[in-house]
Amino acid sequence: MWGIVLSIVMAIIIGLIGDALAGHEMPGGIAGFMIAGFVGAWLGATILGDWGPVIGDFAVIPAILGTALFVFLLGLVSRLLRRAT
């Protein structure tokens, strides 16, 4: 039970940090940060591997970098879609 709670809290924190690094506004508030944190953790682990400190089953450094990349790409796609309409 506490593992799930810790994973959700870490996903939100990683989402907040990744959003701050990417310099975009992540839509969806806390839920958006949580989703970005989970997707970014998966993306970071896939691209960079599992290294650095691990908290709540997240390799923190690759997760933050993956989240920043995800938020940056999401911002680019949203700008392209806004420009196309």
UniProtKB/TrEMBL annotation:
InterPro entries: Transgly_assoc (IPR007341). The chain crosses the membrane at residues 6-23, 30-48, 60-81. Coiled coil: none annotated. It is a multi-pass membrane protein. Keywords: Cell membrane, Membrane, Transmembrane, Transmembrane helix. The keyword Lipid biosynthesis does not apply. The keyword Chloroplast does not apply. Its main location: membrane. It is found in: Cell membrane. It comes from the Bacteria. Belongs to the UPF0410 family. This is GlsB/YeaQ/YmgE family stress response membrane protein. It comes from Paenibacillus ottowii.
